[in-house]
Amino acid sequence: MEGKKVVTLLLGSPRKGGNSEQLADSLAKGAEEKGCEVRKVRLAGKKLNGCFDCRKCWSTGAPCVQRDDMAQVYEDIAAADVLVFATPLYFYSWSSQIKPVWDRLLPFYAENAKIKVACKKAALLAAAGDAEDNVFDGLKASFRLACGFTKWEIAGMICAAGMYPKSDMAEKGGKFLAEAYELGKKL
Question: Where is the NADPH-dependent FMN reductase-like domain (predicted)?
Fold first, then answer.
């Protein structure tokens, strides 16, 4: 018998209970109702250095040589069947909490990678105070390109514009919460 599908939520907001995390919680509820095991990884507070571009991971296929909390994040990514990246929009892109994760994915798609992560599914959940939908264009492009490199199937993208105070999602983001819940049920 096959085990439960593991859905790992990488929470990239510095605000606990913020809008992107509320989307992630809604997705988690849908996934759990469908029998998935949901694991949450809060990135705020972790020591996640930026990439040094030393290329050791590329030449050896091993995870990053840096000694920080990314080692655990690599394990979380490797153990997941589905990865969900939840982030507030920071200047039309990833939050500073989640950006180092993206910058250090290189070990997973090196030709001689010791940890294989191709064929996973990935989803993007994002929230922004800006009300215009096009503010997410850069983030979506980054997500699509990175998923292409890692050979992750895009399961969905939910981008909630016009959400800044934490209360916004509950007060006017019902559509986005429902979309996240339904996406969770499809994972």
Answer: 7-130
Diameter over CA atoms, the chain: 50
Packed helices 174-186 and 19-33: angle between N→C axes, nearest 10 degrees: 40
Task: Return the structure tokens found at 17.
Answer: 């209970």
Q: What is the pTM of this model?
A: 0.94
The whole-angstrom separation of Cα 178 and Cα 23 is: 9
* DSSP 8-state code for residue 80: -
Q: Are 84 and 7 in contact (CB under 8 A)?
A: yes
Q: Tell me: the pLDDT tens digits for 60-76?
A: 888 889 999 999 999 99
In order of start, what are the domains of the chain with their CATH numbers?
Answer: 6-186 (3.40.50.360)
- Nearest-angstrom CA–CA distance, 124 and 67: 27
Can you list the alpha helix ranges (DSSP code H) found in 34-173?
56-60, 70-79, 99-103, 106-109, 137-150, 167-172
Tell me the two tokens of residue 170.
Answer: 């509950």
Tens of pLDDT, residues 29-39: 999 999 999 99
Structure tokens at 42: 């809060």
Which two tokens mark 34? 């469908």
